[in-house]
Design brief:
Number of strands: 0
Structural class: mainly alpha
Largest sheet: none
Distance between the termini: 45 Å
Helix content: over 70%
Radius of gyration: 14 Å
Order of helices and strands: HHH
């Protein structure tokens, strides 16, 4: 559309989930929120003309954003201990 790389949505989703947790959203539900945001992004922005492709793209975006958040967090926790 505007040249916005779809992979950049991973960072946007991660940021939105972090923001939600900052205002009181339970951390245990953050992966589900990430998948929901990713799926909505996939359906409405990445592939609005193809529902199945949008859902699959959105799941990948949501899962990638969960990994983007949890991997550094797990590494930091192991280094601190």
């Amino acid at each position: 559309m505007y040249g916005f790389d779809d992979a950049a949505f991973v960072a946007v989703i991660t940021g939105l989930v972090s923001l939600a947790k900052g205002v009181g959203f339970p951390s245990k539900w953050s992966p589900l929120l990430s998948l929901l945001l990713g799926t909505l992004t996939g359906i409405f922005y990445v592939s609005p003309s193809d529902l199945l492709s949008g859902i699959l793209s959105g799941i990948v975006l949501g899962l990638a954003s969960v990994g983007l958040y949890s991997s550094p967090k797990n590494i930091i926790e192991k280094v601190i201990k």
